[in-house]
Write a sequence for this structure.
């Protein structure tokens, strides 16, 4: 609700203040978005007919590039707040909005929330897969019509063609390795040109992401990069091997799904979005875009260029500008792909003195500040809205301007915000409020949010557990009113504040203070996992549900916060199973444990190195050293699963008698067999690994395990087969035995 409009002292520029989320300035951005909304509502729709043509070609003249607003800037500059205000304008919820309620539909997608909901899909260094990205867009668009069941059903139906393609693409990709392996063999019906086309297809859709079937054999990033420019067509033999159909029975769209899945799935998703906006224009908001990486934005721009003039996209991200990153900056790619006529660039400006004064005076129980004090605050905060907000919080707690605005060694924006967050935490820990004061447990609630693992928007029970309150939603609203770094829409802390608090919470004294928070979360998680295990009995059923794998990762997260040793024991228990049956979740678990390695003992680091590999060098804290800088140096490092034979022998001693979290106890034993055979096959040209895999296949009922076994058998066959003098395949006895076992386990492979 608009509560105040006052002159800012800059001509006719006005300062706008919004209740709950104090919104200051941004007159130019608001004016440009207002103009976009007016244009969007003036575009004529296609009425009911559009719903009947969900397969509209991505090359149809009507499928022009949509309008795209790219809001970019530093962390804490107000990007997310501006996007939320834009959404309220598009919903007609802001006085003076150019559209009335119901004239537009809005879809909201926060990539950081998506990452928290299903972290296993976001672990690859290159970012999430094509299907992960487009699935998220699909779900957001369908959710935009939630108020009308019929409209939501029509929107869902519009994506039917996309869903069919998204389901087939991984199936086709799973057949790539066999074709690639045979393309190097004499007498094979598959050629090197086929290999080039398939490698290019893998690059198109990011099919070598962690855990993808196409990563089973030799599809390395180097090979994909070498084939990225490959041309030519897929041979009839390769087409049949991949699709199971004769070339004449393969439609152009299905052929594209094999040879260029990135473009084809983007075309299908775009056609669905275009269809969904046929009756009512649609504005799609994508926030925290830095989470998904450049590759994903290439796919999304491919969608944006086909969704027409009844759709607008609003993107918020910490992107480097062309001046900072050169011609390959994300912003430069947007300019090239979208074009100047359809692209609106916005970089929220920093607060000037007048805007800072207006913001401080708009807060409850505001004090008056002199011009000199405003100058001091402006210089210290660099005008970053989040830094101004944190400064205001400290001032409201009674600290003096000169104390809050003490200069620091580093002047980077993120450093300013981090230092202010630390000053808030330190002050809050030292200040005791009366029990009746609503602020008395603010610091505990803020620490609870910092420790939250998954998305809290639809999980009031977890919020209640973290905070130990009966009415978490009311408590959250109360907290958000006092602290601007508590984000009301996504129910989380601002990223910079959260990351700073997590770093500081690794301090042993603060970590012990948070132990009760983590224990309450663990109590709830174990109850949920037990309920899910009773509903989904088998390993495959459990790992098929993102809710289950997220709960497993959340349990590992909170266990590590509570105790390093117990957390490492839990990791040791689950990682063999995940490494075989769910590599993406295994990668997420490895990345997660990396955040705690700076507090591990040397023995614990040694054990972890038997299970994983990190690009960073381990550190050891010595008395008198700056523990915070050491810890911060490790945050964000990538760790990947790389289990050694010695790692397979590790025993999770603290959990030896406990029931496994995933599958049954025997599932871990089978996983160890598969992993041991895989490692031994690299160095040993004997029958042992083949026999081990044969036994593992006979004792497991898991399709995931059997798929992994078939992949390892194929790898052994390829490893132990050479080209003979006459150009024929010459397998060793082990290679021949592996080939026979592979044909027995996967009869379809013999037809290729």
């Amino acid at each position: 609700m608009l509560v105040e409009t006052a002159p800012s002292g800059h001509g006719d520029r006005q300062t706008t203040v919004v209740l709950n989320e104090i919104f200051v300035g941004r007159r130019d951005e608001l004016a440009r978005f207002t103009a976009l909304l007016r244009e969007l509502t003036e575009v004529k729709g296609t009425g009911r007919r559009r719903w009947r043509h969900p397969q509209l070609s991505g090359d149809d003249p009507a499928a022009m590039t949509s309008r795209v607003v790219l809001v970019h800037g530093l962390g804490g500059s107000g990007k997310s707040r501006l996007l939320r205000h834009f959404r309220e304008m598009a919903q007609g919820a802001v006085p003076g909005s150019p559209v009335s309620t119901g004239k537009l539909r809005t879809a909201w997608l926060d990539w950081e929330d998506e990452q928290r909901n299903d972290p296993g899909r976001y672990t690859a260094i290159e970012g999430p897969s094509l299907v992960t990205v487009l699935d998220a867009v699909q779900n957001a668009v369908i959710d935009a019509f939630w108020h009308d069941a019929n409209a939501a059903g029509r929107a869902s139906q519009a994506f039917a063609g996309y869903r069919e393609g998204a389901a087939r693409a991984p199936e086709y990709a799973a057949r790539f390795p066999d074709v690639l392996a045979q393309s190097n063999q004499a007498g094979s019906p598959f050629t090197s040109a086929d290999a080039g086309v398939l490698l290019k297809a893998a690059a198109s859709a990011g099919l070598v992401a962690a855990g993808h079937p196409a990563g089973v054999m030799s599809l390395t990033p180097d090979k994909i990069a070498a084939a990225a420019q490959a041309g030519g067509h897929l041979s009839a033999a390769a087409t049949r091997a991949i699709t199971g159909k004769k070339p004449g029975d393969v439609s152009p769209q299905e052929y594209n799904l094999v040879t260029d899945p990135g473009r084809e799935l983007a075309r299908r998703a775009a056609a669905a979005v275009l269809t969904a906006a046929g009756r009512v224009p649609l504005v799609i908001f994508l926030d925290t875009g830095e989470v998904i990486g450049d590759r994903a934005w290439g796919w999304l721009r491919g969608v944006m260029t086909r969704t027409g003039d009844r759709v607008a996209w609003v993107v918020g991200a910490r992107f480097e500008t062309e001046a900072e990153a050169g011609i390959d900056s994300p912003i430069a790619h947007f300019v090239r792909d979208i074009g100047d006529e359809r692209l609106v660039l916005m970089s929220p400006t920093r607060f000037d003195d007048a805007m800072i004064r207006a913001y401080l005076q708009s807060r409850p129980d505001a004090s008056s500040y002199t011009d000199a004090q405003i100058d001091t605050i402006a210089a210290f905060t660099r005008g970053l809205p989040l830094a101004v907000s944190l400064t205001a919080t400290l001032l409201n707690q009674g600290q003096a301007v000169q104390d809050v605005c003490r200069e620091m060694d580093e002047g980077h924006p993120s450093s300013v915000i981090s230092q202010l967050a630390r000053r808030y935490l330190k002050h809050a820990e030292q200040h005791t409020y009366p029990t009746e004061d609503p602020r008395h447990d603010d610091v505990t609630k803020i620490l609870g949010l910092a420790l939250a693992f998954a998305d809290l928007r639809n999980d009031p029970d977890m919020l209640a557990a973290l905070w130990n309150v009966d009415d978490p939603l009311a408590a959250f609203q109360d907290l958000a009113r006092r602290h601007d770094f508590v984000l009301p829409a996504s129910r989380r802390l601002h990223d910079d504040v959260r990351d700073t608090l997590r770093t500081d919470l690794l301090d042993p004294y603060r970590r012990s203070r948070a132990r009760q928070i983590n224990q309450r979360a663990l109590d709830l998680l174990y109850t949920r996992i037990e309920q899910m295990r009773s509903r989904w009995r088998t390993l495959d059923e459990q790992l098929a549900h993102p809710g289950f794998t997220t709960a497993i990762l959340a349990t590992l997260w909170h266990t590590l916060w509570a105790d390093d040793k117990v957390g490492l024991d839990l990791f040791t228990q689950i990682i063999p199973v995940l490494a075989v049956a769910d590599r993406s979740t295994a990668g997420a678990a490895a990345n997660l444990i990396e955040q705690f390695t700076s507090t591990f003992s040397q023995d614990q680091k040694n054990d972890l190195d038997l299970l994983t590999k990190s690009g960073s060098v381990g550190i050891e804290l010595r008395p008198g050293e700056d523990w915070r800088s050491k810890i911060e140096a490790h945050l964000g490092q990538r760790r990947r699963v790389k289990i050694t034979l010695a790692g397979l022998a590790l025993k999770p001693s603290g959990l030896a008698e406990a029931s496994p979290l995933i599958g049954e106890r025997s599932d871990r034993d089978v996983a160890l067999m598969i992993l041991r055979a895989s490692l031994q096959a690299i160095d040993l040209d004997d029958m042992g690994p083949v026999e081990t895999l044969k036994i593992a296949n006979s004792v497991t009922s898991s399709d995931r395990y059997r798929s992994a076994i078939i992949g390892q058998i194929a790898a052994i066959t390829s490893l132990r087969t050479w080209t003979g003098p006459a150009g024929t395949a010459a397998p060793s006895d082990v290679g021949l035995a592996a080939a026979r076992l592979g044909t027995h386990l996967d009869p379809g492979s013999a037809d290729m």
Residues 442-648 form one domain. The longest strand covers residues 311-317. Residues 114 and 136 are 8 Å apart (CA to CA).
